[in-house]
């Protein structure tokens, strides 16, 4: 019985450590996506304020190609939408991992309260 309890505690501890690592990674990914989104929003704002007679360019690798302003705005808007979707998915994953960590903590407390 004591050996089973020890194995179960070790398993729960390892799961909690792994979930904590994943949560840290997910939170970092959320920050990166939010930064990308802010940059895209600022770029969109600046491009949309340009006049019709202004030439716009987009970067392609190390070069710049002239692009129609409406096409450029569409690409930036698409990037913003993709960032929003990624952020939502990552936030769901973070919520799931936080719930798992809290459940494991609760289970560990229950085990130690019963033992003590």
TrEMBL record:
Keywords, alphabetical: Chaperone
Keyword Chaperone (UniProt): yes
Domain of life from the UniProt record: Eukaryota
Transmembrane segments: none
Gene3D superfamilies, per the entry: 1.10.287.370
SUPFAM superfamilies: Prefoldin (SSF46579)
Family: Belongs to the prefoldin subunit beta family.
UniProt protein name: Prefoldin subunit 1
Organism for this UniProt entry: Basidiobolus ranarum
Lineage: Eukaryota, Fungi, Fungi incertae sedis, Zoopagomycota, Entomophthoromycotina
